[in-house]
Write a structure and sequence with these properties.
This protein has 4 helices and 7 strands, in the order αββββαβββαα. The strands form 2 sheets. The protein has a 4-stranded antiparallel sheet. Strands 5-6-7 form a 3-stranded antiparallel sheet, with no helix packed on it.
Amino acid sequence: MYATRDASSTWQRDYSELMKKYEFVAGKAWPCIFYCEKEDIRLLVHGDDFFCLADDEGHAYVDEALKERYEYRCDGRIGPNHDKRMVVLNRLICYEPETGKVTYEADPRHVEALVRELNLETAKAVRTPAEKKKQGDRPDIAEATKSLARLVYEYHPQRFQKDLTVYCDSGHAGCLITRRLVQLG
């Protein structure tokens, strides 16, 4: 897989053709994720590693597909009848019996690279995206913009009147709670 410049694209094309033959459909956003509706199997390909989310019959189906073209080994299984957790590629994968969910530990290097790329090293955390700014750049405008923009994605003209009444003064939003002018003394 690592011998030539186009080796990774050749590898992706090869396993994608095999998955298509076995009725797997590649994801639109990420073509390394596959789904087989017939067997209800989800499959993630990371380099030359395959992660399969399925029952025992689904695993047998994936085994049959991979044996057709590749030599491989299964490093382990997690689930109700198997282990509850295992480490693969230095990542912890856990099965939660209460919910039936499988969690895959994220690579912390990806987060660090993203924060660096977006120049967010000095950013301050907030509890929720709608948290009101208490200082900084015009919290009055931030709140008004949030309020006005919350339904823009689904605009229905019949909901609104033809006339719009606007009240404004230059000291707008002195109070963060009422959004009214606050005058002292």
